[in-house]
Structures are given as structure tokens and as C-alpha cells.
Amino acid sequence: MSSPGSSFVQIKHEDLLFYENCGGGSFGSVYRALWISQNKEVAVKKLLKIDKEAEILSVLSHKNIIQFYGAVLESPNYGIVTEYANGGSLYEFLSSEQSEQIDMKQIMTWAIQIAKGMHYLHAEAPIKVIHRDLKSRNVVMTTDRVLKICDFGASKFLSHTTHMTVVGTFPWMAPEVIQSLPVSETCDTYSYGVVLWEMLTREVPFKGFEGLQVAWLVVEKQERLTIPTSCPASFAELMKKCWQADPKERPHFKQVQQTLETMANDSRLPDQCNSFLHHKDQWRCEIESTLERLRKLERELYSKEKELEERERRLKLWEERLMQRSNMSPSPTSLLMDSNISPVSTSIYYTALSDCGYPNWSFTKAQRARRPKEQDRQTTEPRRKGVAVPYVSGVSEKLQRIFRQHRIPVYHKPVNTLRQKLVHPKDKTPSHKQSNLV
């Protein structure tokens, strides 16, 4: 790699007159400024150091890619200087009242412009690039409403498959990027589908959800943004293709561009699309309904996580208590050598039962359940040396592992009364297994 400044124009910091902050890109803040010597309005992205973004921008040249002018290499005032798009970002436009006036023709024009810019990055640029952070905030608009892709701070030079770390913004990120898996250029296709959804709905993707919540919904639950039922079928189909879980199933931008051009020639589409755009009040409830369902799903997840954390805490506490009580006696098995089960061992055992899902089981009940009736003493089998483990699906196996770890012998107790009392609420009937030493 060439040294910084060897392949692009170096601009002096004092040659720039800074105005207001106009947004934040990846890894830096962006300011509107005047390039004094050239009498040109520019955008300056301030950085802690000059990184690969300047190198990437220096070799790119396309009408739908932000134009790069040079970089400031004076410490600590590092920055990159690009053209200033005074129309703001696409995100800002879609959030404004102006967006209510856009029609299908404008959306189609913008969709094709973004697709052309991305196709250039992937297939025509001197160094092929994966953007990795394509979103409406990183698409800016000129005075004459031409869209330009910007902010290449998260970008990577493209080899056939590149391993990525987590970068970008979760609602726009492909599942493989979220998981830091090897990615190809079609991770940008996924993000493009989200931008297209933004233009059609003028809504914020996964509104109200935190980044990690979105990551869980997209990766674990395979959730995607809601496409209203009244959305024109051709747009809906294109977005679904862009959001395929398998990256190989997503179209490349050349295919996206061709699809859009075919759609532009459909004489019926403008009326369908404009009707959809102007009746937002009729389909917005579909998006809200999905968001509410996802919020409920997230609340259930949170509740389950808390429950698991509490169970882990109780199990850890019980194991510590078992270790302490076992160490107090001469040996782990000596507690159980008597014909009557030791109160200490019984207490430990039934504490374990309580922690494994039997909160109402008490030490007193345990003693009663284990004491045979007087008339049955002659028929009751000889008492074994060890701890009786009720054969309840899932629970007994866990208890056996724990007692084996502490070298305490266990066996299945065949007394029906005990098994019935210890049946787990989720098990409708107790398991009737023969008594076997474990």
C-alpha cells in the first residue's frame, strides 16, 4: 500500500474555513467548509488518522459516487475533503414533509441511480469495493436531486470473499455482516433493499428497536421489514430477493438495475405505485402491527433471559452449598451410610429439587414421603445406601450428574407416593421405571 498522501491532493488545514457540523459519518464528524484557495464549498470529515477511506475515494470516479478532492494530513487535524451535497441526506429528505410529494417516477430514478453507483463499486471501479454501510444516511442529494453514495469508512477492498468484523448500522446490515461471517458484494444488495423500502414507505426501519434487538430478530428469528400488502408486486418481489438469507440467492446490482429498467417500462406501474404512496394511512397499520408483534417477541425473550439467569444463579448457589456441606463431613458417602437418610444429606438433596423446579417441596414433606407406613414395613424393600432420585424427565438426569460429581451414590426410588409427589408440573404422569443402581 502506498504511503498516505502519495496518491491524492494534500490540502492545508489553514486553507479550510469551517462552518457548521452537518452530520456524522463512520469514524468521524462531517462539517461544511470553504476551500479558500479554490473558492469551493466542500464537506470535511474530521478523523483521528488518515485511513483507507481516503485511498478508496482517491481512485473512484462516478456521477453517483461522492467526488473526492483531497485530504488534510496535518496532525491532529486529519480529515478528508469531498464535494458538498447541499440537498442533505436521503434519510433527512424522507423524514421531511417534502417526501409526501414524491411519486413513482422520482423513486424509480433514485433507485436506478443508487444501483448504478453500487454496480460501479462492485464491477467497474479500478479497485472493487464492498461498501458495507449502505443506508439512506450515506446517500446524499445535490441541488438538482442527483443521489450520490458517500461515507466509505466501513468499506473494504473486494477479494472474492472477505472476512468482516461488525460494522455498519444493524437495521441495514445483512445477516452475515451482523455475524462477522465471510461476505461478498451481495451484503450491499441486502442493504439496498432496506433503502428501497425506506423510499417506498418513508418509514424508519425497525423503528424503536435497539441495534442488538434488530440483530437478534434478523439473524435468530429470520424477521424482515414488513412489505404492505398493497405495495406494487414488482417492488415487493425485488425487496424480497434482496433480503434472501443466503447471499448467493440475492441479485447483483447489474441484475437490480435491469429489473428496475424493465419496471420503468411497465405502463401500469405508475398508477399502482402512486396510489400506494398517497394512501399511506391505509397500510401504515400493517407496519405498526408487525412492530408490536416484534416488541412482544422481544419482551418474551427478555423474560426468558431473566428466568435463565435466575436459574443459573440458584444452581450455582446450590452447588456452592453442596460443596461446603460435603467438605464438613468425613467423606461424601458417609452421610448416607445409616439406614435412615442423614438430615444434612436430605436437606441438600431436596434443596436441589427445589432449585430444579420444585419450589413448594419442603424438607418436612421429604421426610414424610420417605417414611413407610407401619403396616407396609414388612413388604418395603431393604433401604439402600444412597440418595433417592425421582425419575422425572430431564430433572433426574441433571441431579444424577451433580451427585456423581460429588461422589454421592444415587438410585431411582420405586415408591409410588414419592414419585407422584415429585412429578414435575410439566410432566402429566410419572415415569414408572424399575429400581436400578446408577
TrEMBL record:
Basic and acidic residues compositional bias, start-end: 372-384
Coiled-coil ranges per UniProt: 280-321
PROSITE patterns referenced in this protein's UniProt entry, alphabetically: PROTEIN_KINASE_DOM, PROTEIN_KINASE_ST
Keyword flag Phosphoprotein: no
GO molecular function term, any single one: ATP binding
Matches recorded under InterPro entries: Kinase-like_dom_sf, Prot_kinase_dom, Ser-Thr/Tyr_kinase_cat_dom, Ser/Thr_kinase_AS, Ser/Thr_Kinases-Pseudokinases
Keyword Coiled coil appears in the UniProt entry: yes
Keyword annotations from UniProtKB, A to Z: ATP-binding, Coiled coil, Kinase, Nucleotide-binding, Transferase
Annotated Protein kinase domain residues: 16-277
Region (Disordered): 365-387, 419-438
Pfam families listed in its UniProt record: PK_Tyr_Ser-Thr (PF07714)
One Gene Ontology CC term in the entry: cytoplasm
Protein name: Protein kinase domain-containing protein
Species of origin: Neogobius melanostomus (round goby)
